[in-house]
Amino acid sequence: MRTVVVVEGARRRGLIVAVMLVIALAGVVWLGDRNPAGRVLRDRGPDGVAAAYGHPLGCLSVTILAMDRTYARADFNHLSPCGRYTWYPTAIFHYASGRWRTVLDAVNYVCPVASLPRSVQTQLGVCDLTGSESGS
Predict the structure, then answer these.
(1) What is the pLDDT of residue 27?
(2) What is the pTM of this model?
(3) For the chain, which terminal residue's Cβ has fewer other Cβ atoms within 10 angstroms, N or C?
(4) Do 43 and 107 lie in a common domain?
(5) Considering only CA atoms, which of 128, 130, 126, 123 is closest in space to residue 66?
(6) 99, HSE (Cβ side, Cα atoms, 13 Å)
(7) HEC states along 36-91?
């Protein structure tokens, strides 16, 4: 009988540990969904692009392609009170796996850009592929 009690006690402890792990995991998932920054990063609109770029939306002009809403361009709005951004980088983002990711963030680049589909380069004004071979 004593052996049975030890086995039952071990099973009970194992069950308690398993339940505690499930509760802890559920808490982590619940808190992760409540994180506003995580939600903003997953936003498919301009807020998500700004969050991925790491700059306030008020300092940016964001263009999302109408034909392929998984590509976007962010430019600094030099008329806004964000004067510390004085350069003119080209920042292109691609929405994949639930978040915006940087595809191109450069002041100078060579056209065509290998990491971007040609139609996206043209539509977002990254490259004029009708004859120019240098980026802006």
Answers:
(1) 53
(2) 0.64
(3) N
(4) yes
(5) 123
(6) 12
(7) HHHHHHHCCCHHHHHHHHCCCHHHEEEEECCCCCCEEEEEECCCCCCCCCCCCCEE
Question: How distant, in Å, are the alpha carbons of 73, 116, 123, 134, 136 from that of 131?
Answer: 22, 17, 15, 9, 14
pLDDT, residue 84, reads 63
Residues 6+ apart with CB under 8 A from 99: 41, 42, 48, 52
Please state the domain count of the chain. 2
The three-state secondary structure class of 9 is: helix
* CA atoms lying within 13 Å on the CB side of residue 105: 11
Q: Are residues 83 and 48 in the same domain?
A: yes
Q: How far is CA 64 from CA 16, 22, 68, in A?
A: 50, 40, 8
Task: Tell me: do 14 and 42 sit in the same domain.
Answer: no
pLDDT in tens, 64-75: 999 899 999 999
Rounded to the nearest 5°, which phi and psi values hold at 17? -65, -40
Q: What share of the chain is helix, strand, coil (3-state, %, to 5)?
A: 40, 20, 40
* Radius of gyration in angstroms for the set of CA atoms belonging to the chain, rounded to a whole number: 25
